[in-house]
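Let's practice the habit of predicting before peeking. Look at the sequence and jot down your guess about where helices and strands might fall. Then scroll down.
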Amino acid sequence: MKRTAKAHWNGTLKEGKGELTTQSTTLNNTQYSFKTRFEEGTGTNPEELIAAAHAGCFTMAVGAALTQAGFTPGDLTTNAVLDLDMNSLSITAIHLDLNASKIEGVDEAKFNEIAEGAKANCIISKVLNTDISLSVSYQ
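Done guessing? Here is the structure:
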């Protein structure tokens, strides 16, 4: 399986602008620029997309792990916070904050074990070379 995306850029770093398009066209000539990346402009940026990809991958991995363990997942919501160090221009950490509804037969310790396994084994976690932390609210 291959997934594709296309980026186009025109101009200088600060005054230029570009568009991102994904194979699914969910992003279709979506604007990105210096302002959307490092300030508060309209559009998206690569770091935001990494956080979204990580949140989505991890949440699906939790659901899959619960299913493989014989449980039916309920509501799972993950907020991913990516830390970008502006001095070194590197991603220094991603924190995943998972909120999950209680599942009959799954105690908090078991749920946390499953969530930690999903964090370690989701495809996006495996590709990222940064510190990944997790907090869980299991109610």
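How did you do? Helices lie at 34-38, 46-68, 108-121, 123-127.
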